[in-house]
Amino acid sequence: MTLRRSSGQAGKAQFNPAQQRRRGMLAKIHIAQKQLGLTEDDYRAVLIRVTGLDSAGAMSDAELERVVAELTRLGFRAKADGKAKPAMHPVALKARAMWISLHQLGVVENPSEQALEAFAARQLGVVKWHWANQAWGYKLIEALKAMAQRAGWDQHLEGVAPAAKARILKRRLAERLFAMLKHEGLIPHHWDILLAAERLAGVEIGGGWWQASAEDADRVVQAFAQARRAPMKPVSALELVR
């Protein structure tokens, strides 16, 4: 009997790039569901809205790609290094900006992303906040607005044009910090906000404080906040009359 040498091909698993890619997309979709904090109903709603199907397993590769793109738009970020990257959608950006502003106001001690995550976890009852779910983000922003309002930073914007809202809020924050500097005796009592902006921030605003741009107001806010953290040297009698 003649023995034939086996080629080894029969029992060897064949690598199929298309199948591997499909499995990768399915895994990514399920990771995104968890990262975004989507309930099963919300998850199915996204699938149906994008493809008309309620099961990722029943989708074509093209449909899976569309679902991944939509979940990415909603804030999903792949964890290439094992750490969730902060989302960059408008709600997350606003929450971060408010957190930093509250630190400048002295309401928040730690302005870091980690401190904000811890605060969000307490407020929203989630184990880990990945800056992804925009519905959670809106709830968090409302909590931050309430903190700002209690600290005297007016958040009411009824009747304000959308394009002017950021500028108005920055100016109000600067005004609140200016009032605190005066109340705490950290600047001469006769200074107005324009003089304080010039002396502390190097910002000259012609035509009145109401004409301050968002960029100028932001520089003033940073300088006023720094002045509260590191008070000026005692003011001399000569400086008081300047």
TrEMBL record:
Entry protein name: Regulatory protein GemA
Region (Disordered): 1-21
Species of the source: Sphingomonas gilva
